[in-house]
Specification:
heterodimer, A: 1022 residues, alpha/beta, Rossmann fold, 42 strands, 29% helix, B: 310 residues, mainly beta, four-stranded antiparallel β-sheet, disordered N terminus
């Protein structure tokens, strides 16, 4: 249905001026004749009306009764798989049976947890959802966020309804406020409560220890258990075992393992504990029910807490698990210098997984370890440990460190006092990397290819070349046109943008792409290292291994190809990818988990960073540039070294360069030892090694111990007596309250302290914790803790004082706390009525119904019912109105200015008729000529008359049309008399005078008359 | 300058004509007429997700398999009739379809190294192969299968051993020929097979950008085609159809078009170019021809079928 509306209807009042327009036009257009005048007025009226309609912003409004229903399916952790399956079945049946295809109803599905994602877009077809395929964060229930996304997904020209399938236990956002916004937008809300099938639930609410645990002082570990009974069921006690485990330094010790009976409600259990040695301790409490049926969710049956008892400083040295023992001597010498050192390899099971695990160490040494042996999260932890928690970070040199180790553009580079790319060098070593992306049939294949390419691009330096080959309309470079390998530096942003838009097609063969790469590598003679990475499922046709083929050309140029088989099509796909890698000396990887791909690409991209290593077998002696306390007591000359990794010192006044290399000469990338303070911690870059490869002469150097112990000690976090400050934490409703009690040495309250504090959450993002004094010696701060995992607090009482560290653990998601369906919220949501429609419905079934009976009962309510206001869509038409008015205005001018004669039509018609009928028209022609002659004579006569009429004859008067014959005769006589009275000089010859002469005479006469009228007026003297 | 009325009219009519003539240069060699388009992207019945192979049976029912391994059957007007899925498809999906003499569907189950035979209703009747390898009866990536008048089956494959194997009516290995390479008689991804009235085997040698013709004993009869985008040249010929009237029609995956040739490789014109509009193609994989002589091209990148006369 179509009708019109106006956005600014007040402008329509201008239409009252129409009669005035008509009146003016009628008067001014009198000379046009009646037809043309009427036409001109009509056109003028139309132009005016159209302009007024345009000013009043006229809209076409179309209303429709088509309906779009979007189902919002709760996928938070509190929803079990069987509940999800039941709800999917309900959605599919509802769409299949209730959608009105004839009216082109649309149906779509959004799944949500912490975030929302479109599972099925709203389409006008009977879509069926086999399973939930979208991956979302399920840690929380953000119903409001899902409702917002639904609003964005609705087509504008249909009626709208959302159907929420949830248990209603939201823990992020405010769904009710969002429901009101939906009602204002005329969106109906139906609710399908997801019912819990649980009979009972026991959860470990928390495990707690005192805030001020000290060595040798006994304390209680408290475990709080909560036994909840499902609504409508009889409460009962639950039997099970309670275990409390202490973890420290990679060891586990069972503190207690006892049978307990948990009565309904909240109960605390305690175990006695005493700490004897300084370390980082984690306490984990677990409850194991005797009968699993008594406990619905096993996820909430454990909780952890931790504490740190300080001793003397400790250092963590991380060495490459593939090159173990490289730093054995270094570690031994540190220990000999009374520094407590923990040596660990980078093997995944030995590496830290939590920022809390780094807290026992005051400094961390990355001893020639490459980037790819750490996850993104672990790299982030290393950086945050220094910046926010004050721990030291030392990077020791070697071919796997700094830029050569793939650490470029990582958070660790930010922490270091040097940049890992080199600048201002006379000869910058250049690498070139080509990546071949073949569309993979694996799920999210394109997504992972983009992630991989981005990671590889990050690893490359500014001076390196990078190109990506994919199948667009044919094999082609992703950027640069024919010259597909471009310098990364000036193009990095553009390259990342192109990668985001990349959609690799199905490549028929490898060979054409290999030839593309071969030709382009040949154009890069300055590239010291050339490498190619192919990611594919292995089904393009095989490469040509002959002498004219791409492989031979690449081998000739020293290009190595590493191949990554992902989702490879069985043995056939693997074999050819393996062959290409073997033939060119590259590596072959088989990937079953796409998440490991970026790490492979980092490692491969690092191959071209080898050029950052500077080596000279003859050796050269580093020189002391600045007498930093790390090199105190050490004098030049130092023993020679044979190599180091090139870096660029950061242009920052805090950076202090203590040792530099004389080789290569004239460079600014020759830092051997540099340091600075970054955030709360200290960072040191030592670009050569500790004696294994490049500094082998240093092993026998007498100052070895002094240098390295001073470097390590300088970097360590300051320690001090923090016994007078106690920090306690308490978690409630997703918020953590931090209470600091400050006493001086006499146990008097310390007031007006200016605490600076920071919290690092499980996502490694710092959270600002504003601590304010609320009572004498008592300071309180609060922060949100929605994510599960460890939260570490760093509270600094002021300059020069050792920081206080504390932490807490959120053991499991809030999703595992609430089990009962939140009927109050769900009913409220359904009762929020849309502005012009009926309120929604709660679609439920009696508790005694299960399976198909329950489904059938629920399907009795039609989600696609028509009880909402018809949807309208409007379209502004002012531009069309103005365009039409412009055209009509042209015709208006045309009608007024141009006389269109149709006299030619008659003769033309006659001519055509005669021609068609074949008449002899000779007579007619003669007659026509006669007619023309007479017409000519007539016209000539008329012209004569007109000329005569134009002559200036003041005496002559033309009788009016309305006078009678007698009046005319009388007037004629009068005129004759006046003629007779005229002077005699007016002779007939004078009538022959020229027109100009007559005008002159008339003028002179007029002047004479004037003089007669004013006889007394003196003559002008000119 | 004064322009006479006649001159003005001539100019006004002539300019558009010149404009049209100017565009002819781009349409050099273009032939054919679009009759219709059907199908759209999706995973529900009647929709496609990157359809890859197509075959038409004696009843003019069109069989199409897509990247979800669904085999769907349509009328020539695009009406969905029925569908089923191959038993397993985790490793990859079929890329070739054919019809045997009994009207059954031959499915080149590419990534499972075998040929499946289905009844028109979707019942799995036979399986040939299933073992990866290069021994007789073993396969690499199977691309297509055709049955000759005597009931012999020709199966093409690529991978490490781009070759064609011939099997007797009862599935017994008879002979093989080919091999990976660019020499005549060798292949680089033989993507499509077709038999002519003389039972000669036509092979679209996709990554060598050429067509090769063999007799029943694997003897090369003819070979033509060069790589390029000009009329008469080929870029990744994926589909092949013979009309029995001295013409061969080829879909070009790389040139996004269908090209008509004489049997000795003289180009008679092209239909389509890259794009998403009607009459435009994106990565076309397969081609077929119904009993009325209308052609159907599988417009893979646009998830649809286009019907045209050529």
């Amino acid at each position: 249905m179509l009708h019109i509306a106006f956005d600014s209807p007040w402008f329509l009042l201008l239409l009252v001026a129409l009669p005035w327009l008509w009146w003016i036009s009628f008067r001014s257009l009198g000379g046009l004749g009646p037809v043309r005048r009427a036409l001109a007025i009509a056109l003028r009226t139309a132009v005016y009306v159209l302009l007024v309609l345009a000013l009043s912003e006229m809209q076409w409004v179309r209303s429709t009764d088509r309906l779009t229903v979007i189902y919002l399916l709760d996928q938070s952790l509190s929803i079990s798989q069987s509940q999800t399956d039941a709800m999917i079945k309900y959605i599919n049946e509802s769409i299949r049976k209730q959608r009105d295809a004839a009216r082109e109803d649309r149906a779509g599905v959004i799944v949500f947890g912490t975030e929302a994602a479109v599972e099925l877009p709203p389409l006008d077809e009977t879509q069926q959802m086999p399973r939930v395929e979208t991956m979302i964060d399920r840690e929380h229930t953000n119903l409001a966020g899902a409702m917002k996304m639904a609003v964005a997904c609705f087509p504008h020209d249909t009626e709208k309804r959302i159907v929420i399938l949830t248990d209603g236990n939201q823990n992020v956002g405010d769904a009710l406020a969002q429901a009101r916004a939906l009602a204002d937008a005329n969106i109906g809300i139906d609710v399908v409560p997801i019912r819990s099938q649980s009979f009972g639930e026991v959860s470990v609410e928390k495990v707690s220890i005192p805030a001020d645990v000290r060595r040798g002082q006994p304390f209680d570990v408290s475990v709080v258990l909560n036994n909840k009974t499902a609504e409508g069921r009889e409460s009962k006690s639950v039997e099970g075992r309670l275990q409390i485990v202490r973890k420290a330094g990679g060891r586990e010790q069972m503190l207690t393992d006892q049978d307990v009976t948990v009565e309904p409600g909240v109960h605390a259990f305690r175990a006695r504990e005493e700490i004897e040695s300084p370390d980082f301790y984690t306490y984990e409490a677990r409850f194991v029910p005797k009968n699993p049926a008594d406990d619905t969710l096993p996820q909430n049956n454990q909780a952890t807490t931790f504490t740190h008892v300080r001793g003397s400083g400790q250092v963590l040295v991380l060495e490459d698990f593939e090159n173990k023992g490289e730093f054995k001597f270094f570690v031994e010498r540190l220990r000999a210098m009374n520094i407590e050192v923990a040596l660990r390899s980078t093997r995944p099971e030995e590496l830290f997984n939590d920022l809390a695990e780094l807290q026992p160490y005051d400094s961390i040494v990355l001893a020639n370890v490459p980037r790819e042996q750490f996850s993104d999260e672990q790299v982030e932890m290393l950086a945050r440990n220094t910046q926010n928690m004050g721990g030291g970070l030392i990077m020791m040199g070697g071919p796997n460190s700094f830029g050569a180790g793939g650490w470029t553009n990582t958070p660790v580079e930010e922490v270091m006092p040097v940049e890992f790319q080199i600048k201002n060098a006379k000869v910058i070593p250049v690498g070139a990397l080509a990546m071949l992306m073949h569309a993979s049939e694996m799920a999210d294949g394109n997504y992972w290819q983009k992630v991989i390419a981005r990671e590889a691009l990050k690893t490359l330096g500014d001076q390196d070349y990078c190109g990506v080959i994919h199948w667009g309309l044919r094999e082609e470079w992703l950027w640069g046109g024919r010259q597909g390998m471009l310098k990364v530096g000036p193009n990095r942003g553009q390259m990342l943008g192109r990668l985001d838009r990349m959609t690799p097609g199905d490549m028929p063969e490898f060979e054409s792409s290999l030839i593309l790469a071969r030709n382009e590598f040949a154009n890069l003679p300055d590239a010291a290292s050339k490498h190619m990475i192919i990611i594919s499922d292995g089904d393009p046709a095989d490469a040509n291994y002959g002498p004219s083929g791409g492989i031979a050309g690449l081998i000739k140029q020293g290009v190595k190809i590493s191949t990554v088989a992902i989702g490879a099509h069985g043995a056939a796909g693997h074999a050819r990818l393996r062959a290409m890698a073997l033939k060119t000396g590259g590596k072959y990887y088989v990937v079953t988990n796409a998440r490991t791909l970026p790490r492979i690409y980092q490692k491969e991209a690092r191959r071209i960073s080898r050029s950052l290593v500077f080596e000279r077998a003859t050796g050269f002696r580093p020189q002391i540039k600045y007498p930093h306390e790390m090199v105190q007591g050490i004098e030049n000359p130092l023993p020679p070294i044979t190599g180091y990794v090139l870096t660029t010192a950061k242009d920052n006044p805090l950076v202090e360069i203590s040792l530099v290399s004389p080789e290569p000469p004239g460079q600014t990338n020759n830092t051997i030892l540099a340091s600075w303070t970054y955030g709360l911690g200290k960072a040191v870059a030592f670009t050569t090694d500790a004696g294994h490869r490049w500094a082998s002469d240093w092993v026998s150097w007498s100052e070895y111990d002094r240098l390295f112990s001073q470097i390590v000690r300088w970097s360590m976090r300051p320690s001090g007596d923090t016994g007078k400050f106690t920090v306690s934490t308490d978690v409630r409703d997703g918020k953590v309250r931090v209470v600091v009690t400050a006493l001086d040495k006499d146990d008097e309250f310390l007031n007006f302290l200016n605490f600076s504090s920071i919290v690092v959450g499980p996502d490694m993002k710092p959270i600002d914790l504003g601590i304010k004094q609320t009572a004498p010696g008592r300071y309180i701060g609060e922060f949100d803790a929605k994510k599960t995992g460890s939260y570490l607090l760093m509270v600094s009482p002021g300059a020069g004082k050792a920081p206080i560290r504390a932490g807490l653990s959120i053991p499991y998601s809030d999703e595992f706390r609430e089990r009962e369906t939140n009927d109050a919220l769900l009913t409220s949501l359904a009762h929020v009525a849309p502005k012009d429609g009926a309120a929604g419905q709660v679609i439920d079934a009696p508790a005694n119904l299960t399976g198909d009976e329950r489904l059938a009962h629920m399907l009795e309510t039609n989600e696609f019912r028509r009880d909402l206001a018809p949807a309208t869509s409007s379209q502004g038409v002012w531009h069309l109105l103005v365009l039409t008015a412009s055209c009509l205005f042209f015709f208006d001018i045309f009608v007024r200015r141009v006389t269109v004669s149709f006299a030619w039509v008659g003769p033309l018609a006659v001519g055509v008729r005669d021609r068609l009928l074949g008449r002899d028209n000779a007579k007619d022609v003669e007659a026509t000529i006669e007619r023309l002659r007479s017409s000519k004579a007539e016209v000539a006569g008329q012209l004569e008359q007109k000329l005569a009429a134009l002559r200036f004859e003041p005496a002559a008067e033309t009788p009016g049309d309305a006078t009678t014959l007698e009046e005319t005769i009388a007037k004629t006589n009068e005129a004759a008399a006046r003629q007779a009275a005229k002077p005699a000089s007016l002779t007939p010859e004078q009538e022959q005078d020229s027109y100009t002469a007559r005008l002159l005479k008339a003028k002179q006469k007029a002047r004479g008359d004037q003089k007669k009228d004013q006889p007394d007026r003196p003559e002008s003297t000119g | 300058m004064r322009i006479e009325r006649r001159s003005f009219l001539a100019l006004a009519l002539g300019m558009p004509a010149l404009a049209v003539l100017g565009g002819c240069d781009d349409d050099r060699g273009k032939v054919g007429r679009l009759r219709g388009t059907w199908g759209r992207s999706g995973v529900t019945d009647g929709r496609f997700n990157k359809p890859r192979a197509m075959a038409i049976d004696g009843n003019d029912q069109i069989y199409i398999v897509d990247i979800t391994a669904r085999i769907q059957v349509f009328t020539t007007e695009g009406e969905f009739l029925r569908g089923w899925q191959t038993p397993v498809h985790a490793n990859g999906r079929p890329t070739g379809l054919g019809i045997d003499r009994r009207g059954n569907l031959l499915v080149a189950d590419t990534h499972y190294y075998r040929v499946l035979t289905y009844s028109p209703q979707g019942e799995l009747l036979e399986t040939l192969g299933g073992t990866f390898g290069h021994a007789p009866g073993e396969f690499g990536f199977v691309t297509d299968a055709v049955e000759d008048a005597e009931g012999n089956l020709y199966v093409s494959e690529y991978g490490e051993y781009d070759r064609i194997q011939k099997f007797s009516r009862d599935g017994k290995f008879l002979l093989e020929w080919g091999g990976h390479g660019t020499d005549t008689g060798q292949f680089s991804r033989p993507q499509c097979l077709a038999l002519d009235a003389e039972q000669h085997l036509w092979v679209s040698d996709a990554c060598n950008h050429r067509i090769q013709v063999f007799d029943g004993q694997g003897q090369l009869l003819t070979c033509w085609g060069t790589h390029g985008s000009a009329p008469g040249q080929l870029a990744y010929p994926y589909g092949l159809v013979l009309d029995g009237q001295g013409h061969v029609y080829v879909t070009e995956y790389g040139n996004h078009r269908v090209q008509k040739f004489t049997l000795d490789g003289q180009s008679l014109g092209c239909w389509g170019h890259d794009g998403r509009g009607p009459g435009e193609l994106l990565y076309p994989w397969a081609l077929t021809r119904d009993s009325q002589g209308h052609f159907y091209v599988l417009d893979t990148g646009n998830h649809r079928v286009q019907c045209f006369d050529l």
